[in-house]
Amino acid sequence: MAATAALGRKIVSISSKRQITIPQKFFHALRFDSEAECILKNGELVLRPSRPAPAEDFSEEILAELVAQGLSGEKLLAAFREKRAKVRSAVQTMRNDAAKAAKGEGKYATMADVFEKR
């Protein structure tokens, strides 16, 4: 973090369409890609690179589970890649199912299914 603090401060223009250009040295130092996250916090606008939402990235949980199993080195890396791919696939399946349910298509749970005792 100290390295990014040393980059300093830069005043940027705001276009008539409310657009700004991120100075190149900040863009590269923070590793921006194609999206930025804007957060209003304590009267300030925080602009930072967009990262996967926590609900979509279970990396820490996956690693903790694999380390607890005693894996390390190349075995850890291989197992991590395999589990991460499975999680991504499962999340995508859930998204697809949710989209179908929102359209009234496919099998989905009703409020009664979820909250009524059987």
Explain how this protein is built:
With 118 residues, this protein is mainly alpha-helical. The chain has two domains: 13-49, no CATH class; 59-105. It has five helices and two strands. It has helices at 2-5, 24-29, 59-68, 73-102, 111-115; strands at residues 36-41, 44-49. Strands 1-2 form a two-stranded antiparallel sheet. Helix 3 (59-68) crosses helix 4 (73-102). The protein is flat. The N and C termini lie far apart (54 Å). The model has no long low-confidence stretch (mean pLDDT 83).
Distance between the termini: 54 Å
Number of structural units classed as domains: 2
Secondary-structure element string: HHEEHHH
What is the count of β-strands? 2
Strand order, main sheet: write it out. Answer: 1-2
Helical amount: 40-55%
Q: Any idea what the radius of gyration is?
A: 21 Å
Percent in strands: 5-15%
Uncertain runs: none
Q: What's the mean pLDDT score?
A: 83
How many strands, what sense, and barrel or not for the largest sheet?
2 strands, antiparallel
